[in-house]
């Protein structure tokens, strides 16, 4: 009987110590948080703000017409379009905040018919934040959903879309706060 009382008292003391150490670890304002569970991946990802400078490629369309006469008084006219690859030096921005990404494309990459956006920003879908690479996709319009790949070691960005749409350049981090603006 004496052995049973000591065992029960020891168990109660151990339980009390465990409960008080759990409360001390959780701290104020963290009630209900299980310290044994790792935090979600987005909590481990610091915010990423990149300004990328490079070459934007896009489908450029030009048109022309011709009119001709022959020596018998006949005439003919023609009108045609030509599509070729245009390239422009420009900037692109990429933000990842809380595991959610978005991109701001150079204006030359947007065709006349494109889906809505948020002041030029487009959501990144299928976002993968790896140790060496950031990848994802974004929508320009119903038919064109380019893929994006950023090498986290070299800073090289590569965007490939339908047809001749793309971007290739180098990224550098920037401070997104209003205090960091130049103007």
Provide structural commentary.
Helices cover 16% and strands 45% of the residues. With 183 residues, it is of the alpha+beta class. The chain has a domain at 43-62 and 87-175: Porin. It has an eight-stranded antiparallel β-barrel with strand order 1-2-3-4-5-6-7-8. The protein starts with a helix and ends in a 10-residue tail after the last strand.
The percentage of residues in β strands lies in: 35-45%
> How many alpha or pi helices?
2
Tertiary shape: elongated
Under CATH, the topology of the domain at 43-62 and 87-175 can be stated as: Porin
Considering the chains and any ligands shown, give keywords for the structure:
single chain, 183 residues, alpha+beta, Porin, eight-stranded antiparallel barrel, 16% helix
Outline of the structure:
The protein is of the alpha+beta class. The protein is built from 2 helices and 8 strands, in the order ααββββββββ.
Topology:
Blueprint: H1 2-26, H2 41-44, E1 48-69, E2 75-97, E3 100-104, E4 121-129, E5 133-137, E6 147-151, E7 156-160, E8 166-173
């Amino acid at each position: 009987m004496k052995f049973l009382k000591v065992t029960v008292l020891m168990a109660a003391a151990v339980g009390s110590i465990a409960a008080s150490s759990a409360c001390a670890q959780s701290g104020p304002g963290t009630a209900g948080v299980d310290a044994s569970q790792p935090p979600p991946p987005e909590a481990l990802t610091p915010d990423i703000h990149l300004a990328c400078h490079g070459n934007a490629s896009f489908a450029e369309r030009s048109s022309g017409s011709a009119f001709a006469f022959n020596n018998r008084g006949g005439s003919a006219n023609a009108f045609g379009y030509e599509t070729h690859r245009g390239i422009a030096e420009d900037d692109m921005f990429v933000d990842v905040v809380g595991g959610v990404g978005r991109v701001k494309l150079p204006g030359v990459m947007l065709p006349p018919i494109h889906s809505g956006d948020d002041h030029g920003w487009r959501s990144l879908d299928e976002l993968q934040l790896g140790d060496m690479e950031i990848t994802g996709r974004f929508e320009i319009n119903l038919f064109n959903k380019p893929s994006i790949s950023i090498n986290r070691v070299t800073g090289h960005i590569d965007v490939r879309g339908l047809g001749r749409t793309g971007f290739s350049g180098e990224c550098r981090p920037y401070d997104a706060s209003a205090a960091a603006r130049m103007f």
